[in-house]
Amino acid sequence: RPKLLDLKPGTRIVSNTFTMGEWEPDIEVNTVDNWNSWNTALLWIIPAKVEGTWRIGNDELSLSQDFQFVRGTFTSNGQTTAVSDGRLNGNEIVFTLGTTKYQARVDGNNMTGTASNASNKWNWKAVRK
Question: Which CATH number fits domain 52-128: 3.20.20.70, 3.30.10.20, 3.10.20.30, 2.40.128.20?
Answer without folding.
Answer: 2.40.128.20
